[in-house]
Write a structure and sequence with these properties.
Elements (H helix, E strand, L loop, with lengths): L18 H12 L8 E6 L2 H6 L8 E5 L5 E5 L1 E3 L14 H13 L2 E3 L7 H6 L3 H4 L4 E6 L7 H17 L4 E10 L15 E6 L6 E9 L2 E4 L7 H4 L6 H6 L7 E10 L6 H25 L5
Parallel strand pairs: 1-5, 5-6, 6-7, 7-11
Antiparallel strand pairs: 1-4, 2-3, 8-9, 9-10
Helix pairs in contact: 1-3
Length: 297
């Protein structure tokens, strides 16, 4: 009856429902298409938009920007587009967060694209339980000659964090590679038919051989062997390979090349880049799997 207060009644609570019913509710809110969980695209927000927005609780960080990327700009990460998730359920209380977080973070792929600077701030804002629930991550690595000093620092930080704070099962790695268009001559200055060019490392004067051979009037590079990459990972600019290999115990490591056109190699450095690019999905992928995938060695 109106006006009567029932003191012996408890207010409705999600926690009064059986656990299996709660999990089903979480699934409706966090897995709109349970047959095909979405990829959540985490991106660095445009610094100008970030400056005008409400900062919230996201960890800020700095990126290189401005003309010629000569200054640092404050920004943070964002979810590029929401595929229909309702993650606010995690804010209800600690118990619901603990129950629902594993579902949210273990069932989606987190794609960071080229925005590797966003990985550590995003992960560090999660609870340890949520962070270790993440199973699948996508990242893109800029390789030589595109790497800058700040890229190297961010990559090193990313690899250390993933190796110590997360329990990844699958890593999808795309590496930017260079290919000379077939319409352009591949003859490199100073390289003759079937020339073996020695690339010296900065570690004790050791070297690997890179074959440059004549094919139908053009000069082409041949990829490296799997055994070469233990040494190559010590070359200046290739330290990122050793840093990546800190991530252990994966179940699956998928390696793909993102091909970009580059000029015909006219130096050892560019010839090395082209030769490395030819190796990415072959011997380089084998080397990484041997070092990073559980039971692959």
């Amino acid at each position: 009856m109106e006006g009567i207060i029932y003191h012996d009644c408890q207010p409705p609570s999600l926690l009064l429902l059986p656990p299996e019913i709660r999990l089903q509710i979480y699934s409706y809110l966090l897995l709109p298409d349970i047959s095909s969980p979405a990829t959540l695209q985490i991106r660095t927000e445009d610094p100008e938009r970030y400056a005008r927005s409400s900062k919230g609780l996201r960890t800020p960080y700095h990126i290189m920007g401005g003309r010629l990327r000569s200054s640092t700009l404050s920004t943070s990460y964002k979810l590029k587009s929401n595929p229909g998730l309702h993650p606010s359920i995690l804010l209800t209380n600690r118990q619901i967060h603990a129950e629902a977080a594993h579902l949210l973070y273990s069932q989606h792929t987190f794609d960071f694209d080229l925005d590797v600077e966003s990985v550590v701030p995003f992960l560090s804002d999660l609870t340890p339980h949520a962070r270790r629930s993440i199973r699948h991550v996508n990242i893109i690595k800029r390789a030589l000659p595109y790497t800058k000093d700040f890229d190297r620092y961010e990559w090193s930080d990313l690899c250390s964090y993933l190796s110590t704070q997360c329990s990844l099962q699958q890593l999808d790695l795309q590496v930017v590679g260079g290919k000379v268009p077939s319409s352009q001559t591949m003859r490199a200055v100073g390289f003759g038919p079937n020339t073996v060019t020695t690339i010296n490392s900065h570690l004790g004067g050791q070297s690997v051989d890179m074959l440059v051979k004549e094919e139908q009037g053009k000069t082409a590079t041949k990829g490296f062997q799997k055994g070469d990459f233990g040494l190559i990972s010590g070359f200046e600019g290739m330290e990122w390979v050793r840093q990546l290999c800190k991530i252990k115990g994966l179940r699956c490591l998928d390696i793909r090349t993102i091909w970009e056109n580059c000029p015909p190699p006219c130096s050892n450095a560019l010839a090395f880049f082209v030769s490395f690019s030819e190796s990415i999905e072959g011997s380089f992928a084998e080397f990484l799997r041997e070092n990073m995938v559980a039971g692959a060695a």
